[in-house]
Amino acid sequence: MAFYENTIVAKQDLAEKEIKIIKDTYNELINNSSGKVLKVEEWGLLNLANKIKNYRKGFYIHYKFEGDKKTLDAIEKKIKVDGKIIRNLTVKYKKLDIKKEFFGKEK
Question: What is the pTM of this model?
Answer without folding.
Answer: 0.87
